[in-house]
Amino acid sequence: MLSIKEKLGKYHTKPSGSPRSKEADASVVQGEIVNTPYGGFILRSRSFPLTFDHGAELHQFLRFNARDWMLLGKNTVLHNLTPHNVVVVDTETTGLAGGTGTLAFMIGTGEIEGDNIVIRQYFMRDFSDEPAVLQAIRENIGDKHAVISYNGKAYDFSILRSRYILNRKPYPFEKQLHLDFLHTARRLWKGRVGQCTLQNLELNILRLQRQDDIPGWEIPQLYFEYLKSGDLSTMLPIFQHNCIDILSLFSLLIRARDCFMPGTDVYPVYQGVIKTLHDLGFYRKADFVFDRVLAKAPGRSRANLYYEKSMNLKKIGNWSRAVKIWNQLIDEHQTDPRVYTELAKYYEHRSGDINKALQMVVRLEKRLEILSELYDEDSLALSREELLYRKQRLLRKGKKTGDDETLSP
Q1: Is 229 inside any structural domain?
Q2: Hey, how many other C-beta atoms are within 10 angstroms of the C-beta on 285?
């Protein structure tokens, strides 16, 4: 039986590939050949001043604070991040499905250095360059506190982890925090733009449209053709594609931060903003957002927004304002059964007024009789069994307290 070491040895990368690719002039892609004890690779470095506008003013990235990182990642552990201790990572691979046999032949990184965003692209001239590339990544960005990616948790970093293991190298991102911006984008913009592909967000959020860009699905085949021909010039579109991906991610981070800033039109993204604030327990901040949303919301959606605001007030413990909204909605002849239910629960459990709680249940019963003629039972968000159980419990409580006052709808 083979040992673990022998099994891994079967998969260990051997020097292979086109000899012509090793002789290529790196200046064709505005790069340089870097030779290391682990082998060589091509490194391409590009600097973009923070005054550059790529669908967002890049200098705004320097304004990110602890609260911003927590909101974007919906995670309080991100509070120690700063613009200077994070790195954006994006890979180009030999296959879109992932898996052990897939290699990241290009690893692009983006980070703040001085007044610039510096993008470095580590490129494998053939498969034998992989150990050198992986070691360079480990040495150059291993000290960052966090990595930022787009779908990296499910794809890029799964591949990188496999490649480090197969090359018998320590995985450098084990203890680093990871902000996968795909989840942020879906939370904020999915309802607005539909598919949250990077290029769809560029078009609809950044108002940018790529010119002569290579489709992502063509990249693996183009790389395999390069390995046969050794013509490095064919790789320039991939370098450019990867560079745009990284710049766009910086800009989208800025646009996402804007969604949480005072003075912005939060209505188009309020559901994602509110969900983020709720999940972090920032209910008082959510209350201010509801006020901003209600100032912009069309009439047809205001009733539901007021109900959502009331439930947020309930979490804060501001019962007087919540009850005021519920009564206001009933006075305006709103048909939402949830409003009657919340008032019934309030009168029963908070104010101890069993008779008023019963009144709400009876009024809701009559309301449901009308609504059942108009809508499916499932759409009423309340089962008749639940309503009957509540009514019977309140009647029992009323008998115990001796409250025989006649109920009125």
Answers
A1: yes
A2: 18
The whole-angstrom separation of Cα 93 and Cα 88 is: 17
Residues 6+ apart with CB under 8 A from 143: none
| Domain endpoint, select from 209, 232, 258 | 258
Find the domain containing 59 and state its range. 10-258
Distance CA 253, CA 339 (A): 38
146 and 295, same domain (yes or no): no
Q: Are 185 and 246 in a shared domain?
A: yes
Under a CB-based contact definition with an 8 Å cutoff, are residues 116 and 140 in contact?
Answer: no
**Number of compact structural domains in the chain:** 2
Last residue of a domain, one of 236, 258, 280: 258
d(CA 267, CA 292): 8
In order along its 409 residues, the chain shows pLDDT tens digits of 555 444 334 434 444 445 455 666 899 999 999 999 999 999 999 999 999 999 999 999 999 999 999 999 999 999 999 999 999 999 999 987 766 789 999 999 999 999 999 999 999 999 999 999 999 999 999 889 999 999 999 999 999 999 999 999 999 998 899 999 999 999 999 999 999 999 999 999 999 999 989 999 999 999 999 999 999 999 999 999 999 999 999 999 999 999 999 989 999 999 999 999 999 999 999 999 999 999 989 888 899 999 999 999 999 999 999 999 999 999 887 778 889 999 999 998 999 999 999 988 888 888 777 766 666 555 455 567 777 888 888 888 877 766 555 444 4
Same domain for 235 and 280, yes or no, is: no
